[in-house]
Every structure is written in structure tokens, then in C-alpha cells.
Design brief:
The structure is a single chain. The protein has one domain. The chain is about 10% helix and about 40% strand. Strand 1 and strand 2 form a beta hairpin.
């Protein structure tokens, strides 16, 4: 049984026009695109405070224990 689909994709940091290739998990049930904090730090993405918190919910509808997302990267594109 297939448990997940992993892909290598390119993400461009549009503020400095630098691209990185990263391995991502394709989640067809996700409502948004997210980056792990470790990946953000490893690749040097710049984060900005979001105007509105983004709630993160688990598959069963409960709030994720890590809490809402308060910062985001708005300087990259796939």
C-alpha cells in the first residue's frame, strides 16, 4: 500500500533569485502548502509575520499541538 508520494521539486527564493531543490511530501488532503521549520532554517528562507494566524488541524479535525502558524515565507515560488 502506498503511504505517501515524495517528489523532488525546485523552489525559487524570489527575493534573491536563488533556487533550491528539495524533497517534498505530496499530501492531497492538505489545504495549504507548508514548510518545516528545519527546512526553512537549512535553506535560509526569510520569514515574515503573517497578518492573520493560520490554524493547523490534524486529519481528525483537532488542533495540531504545535499551534497556529504565525510566520510565513512569502518570498518563494515553486
Amino acid at each position: 500500500m502506498l503511504k505517501g508520494v515524495w517528489l523532488n521539486i525546485g523552489i525559487e527564493k524570489i527575493d534573491i533569485y536563488e533556487g533550491v531543490i528539495v524533497k517534498v511530501l505530496l499530501d492531497s488532503g492538505a489545504t495549504e502548502m507548508f514548510m518545516d521549520k528545519k527546512m526553512v532554517a537549512r535553506h535560509g528562507f526569510k520569514l515574515q509575520k503573517l497578518e492573520k494566524l493560520v490554524a493547523v488541524r490534524n486529519v481528525n479535525g483537532t488542533n495540531n499541538s504545535a499551534g497556529a502558524i504565525s510566520k510565513g515565507d512569502q518570498s518563494s515560488t515553486l
